Amino acid sequence: MSTFEVSRRAVIEADPARVHDLVADLHQWQAWSPWEGLDPGLVRTYSGADRGVGAQYAWSGNRKAGAGSMEILRADPARIDLTLSFLKPFKATNETSFVLDPTPSGGTTVTWTMRGERSGLMGVVGRVLPIDKLIGKDFEKGLARLDTAART
């Protein structure tokens, strides 16, 4: 078993409070998540707090979307931390963070990072195709969509 870390950074042309609202409210992820659209019939369940610490989201979908859940553990103005648990197509629990730094122009530099252990299926896949290549493109797509959503 080995650890991995995937991180992407982008400047979002919106106030940090606006970006924070889109990330700390799991209901808002439909507007920007790179995985939206993988399954039009995706079943979503929200529980816990409405937003911020304690907010929980679970999904179940087709083979592409898989199944899992996430929970916000920390939601400071400058940082949001989540636990992300995948059930299908593989089991894994990863730590995810969004660090929000204001820019001089009034925007926000967002750094999206995920850390975890490569084991089982992901350990095998990770030997052939680095996790950074698999997930990094999704993070880039999500940050671009987050920028668009934050401007509306």
What is this structure, in a nutshell?
The chain contains 3 helices and 7 strands, in the order βαββββββαα.
Question: Could you explain how this protein is built, in words?
Answer:
The chain has helices at 16-24, 120-128, 131-151; strands spanning 2-12, 43-48, 55-60, 67-76, 79-88, 92-102, 108-118. By secondary structure, it is α+β, with helices and mostly antiparallel strands. The chain has a single domain (2-151), classed as Alpha-D-Glucose-1,6-Bisphosphate, Chain A, domain 4, CATH 3.30.530. Strand 5 and strand 6 (92-102) form a beta hairpin. The longest helix has 21 residues, at 131-151. The chain is globular, with a radius of gyration of 15 Å. 22% of the residues are buried.
Give the helix/strand layout:
Layout (H helix, E strand, L loop, with lengths): L1 E11 L3 H9 L18 E6 L6 E6 L6 E10 L2 E10 L3 E11 L5 E11 L1 H9 L2 H21 L1
Antiparallel strand pairs: 1-7, 2-3, 3-4, 4-5, 5-6, 6-7
Give the tags.
152 residues, alpha+beta, Alpha-D-Glucose-1,6-Bisphosphate, Chain A, domain 4, seven-stranded antiparallel beta sheet
Radius of gyration: 15 Å
CATH architecture assignment: 2-Layer Sandwich
**Major sheet size, sense and barrel closure:** 7 strands, antiparallel
Report the count of strand segments.
7
The averaged pLDDT comes out at 91
How much of the residues is beta strand, in percent? 35-45%
Helix residue percentage: 25-40%
CATH class: Alpha Beta
The strand line-up of the biggest sheet is: 1-7-6-5-4-3-2
User: So how many helices?
Assistant: 3
So what's the overall shape? globular
Name the CATH homologous superfamily. Answer: START domain
The total number of structural domains is: 1
CATH fold group? Alpha-D-Glucose-1,6-Bisphosphate, Chain A, domain 4
Uncertain stretches: none
